[in-house]
Design a protein that fits this description.
Elements (H helix, E strand, L loop, with lengths): L1 H55 L6 H7 L4 H33 L6 E4 L1 H16 L3 E7 L5 E4 H18 L4 E10 L2 E8 L6 H4 L19 H11 L3 E7 L3 E9 L7
Parallel strand pairs: 2-4
Antiparallel strand pairs: 1-3, 4-5, 5-7, 6-7
Helix pairs in contact: 1-3, 3-4, 4-5, 5-7
The protein binds adenosine-5'-diphosphate and magnesium ion.
Amino acid sequence: AQTQLVQSEKMVSLGQLVAGIAHEINNPIGAIYANMPPLEEYIDDIKGTVEFAQSCMDEPGAEKLNTHMEQIDYTFVTEDLAKLLGSQKQAADRIRNIVLALRNFSRLDQGEVKTVRLEEGLDSTLQMLHHTYKDRITIEKDYALNEMVECYAGELNQVFMNILANAIQAIPDKGGIFITTAKVNDQAVISIADTGIGMPEEVRKKIFDPFFTTKEVGEGTGLGLSISYGIIEKHHGALTVESELNRGTRFIIAIPLRLIKDA
Ligand code: ADP
Ligand code: MG
């Protein structure tokens, strides 16, 4: 019990740390966004001035103007500058989304009951994993649940993280991941399917066992799915898997829309 207490205190302070970092990043990001419109306007002005100066270059007495204009890189001023600013904005958008995802995760303390859209948890998780799949895996989503779900939201996010990270790791090169949500008989059902390496029967039988892993030392702990299984059990739900070797794997999570409290 002693070590467990220490462990849960650690979790809380990690959550607070992440929330603090997210907050700190938000301020400079705000400044970057605030600077964007005046910069855009200024670039527009410069572009106008340069274009006007260009149109004057053939006028009599424009020699002095010409020597100045020769030093100006026209494509830089009229095109590249705006493009650069555009990609700055994209980068800022990306940071803002990561911060949003971090916040989504950190504000959900372990053991806390919340009523949430599970799709938000799935999207935040994808956002956090984005750098591990962006160039090689296409994600297709069909979100049809359209219901809020009462659950241990922070813990469900851990389940999404484990299953999605496994799916990404199971795709050696290019492939796809298909995520669907639906309501079936007052249950929220989430399916996560990948076009990865799949599993032979003898592996599939053991994946929920603690410390079972087929990954190299340091790459896998073998804990993800056993922890996930426990979390779904706590929701009185079901976590099932279908897999075909060299074709892919599908995990199906089903939980009641309202939490069933243990007696
Ligand atoms: P870890 O990822 O640390 O190995 P997990 O409990 O998350 O531990 O998974 C256990 C094992 O289940 C993995 O090592 C792998 O062999 C298998 N597995 C899990 N998800 C998939 C998947 N999507 N495709 C193929 N194998 C998988
Ligand atoms: Mg794992």
